[in-house]
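Page 47, continued from p. 46.
Same chain as before, 168 aa.
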Amino acid sequence: MSIEPTGTRIAAVALFAAWLVHDVEEVFTFPATSRLLAARLGRDRVVVSPTQSVLAIALMGVLVGVACVRGTRSQGKSRLYRAVLAGLEAHVVTHIATSISFKSYTAGLITAPLVMFPGARVARAQLRRSGSPLLPSDTARGGALLFAAALGSHVISRIVLGTRNLRG
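Result:
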């Protein structure tokens, strides 16, 4: 039996664990960041309650979890896994850029470079070792997928929970 599936499984678990730690930070900090964004845009409609944040992040967790399972089962060849991995890796830059733009801490800034990026790099390295490195097209698909999924998860959380109690 090849060691490859074990390496892929470890990489997928590392990616999911990194995402989980990163998004725990976001659960607690995204509502405050949404208030900063609302103030900057002058639109209270972008304010997210803590409950909405938890639901939206849980929905994203389903996507990341499914992608990691598919990545394990396909030995890293699943297009979904590759897109999610590449998208999460690229997403680290958005956290840093957002904080630079706001000139302050924003949700996810601490764990994006310290946890999410290394977790994604472990998974990327495993793909490279297995002879199936990530491609620029994986990153393009991943960026589009994660943007749409994040937007969709927030819309769903807003529909399910409504707009009441936006401050908590």
